[in-house]
Amino acid sequence: MVIEKIIKQLTPERIKEENDKVLKLKLPSEIQKWIKEYEKVGEKVGERKDYIWKWTYLNMQNLTLPTVIKKYRNFTLNKYTKLNLRHKEKYLITRY
After folding, report:
1. How far apart are CA 30 and CA 75, in angstroms?
2. Which residue ranges make up each domain of the chain?
3. pTM of the full predicted structure?
4. Residue 64 carries which DSSP code?
5. Which of 54, 63, 64, 92 has its CB 3.0 to 4.6 Å from that of 25, i.e. a possible disulfide?
């Protein structure tokens, strides 16, 4: 079963490796600018520990289809990241 294969891959070493990828990621300047604007009206990044922004960006890299033309890839990743985070905020605000 597919789930069992995925679970077998979740070793402590693999989890640490994936976590390290997130922690070491440098966000593009466009996303960093957007975070600063976000701080003016929303939570401070310190409260988020910067992790959620990096994690979201990294996952947008994994989810972006390979059919996206290379010269538009960064633009697409930045937009997906912003949209995804805005959606999460809207969900959190309306839910709680």
Report:
1. 9
2. 2-95
3. 0.68
4. S
5. 54
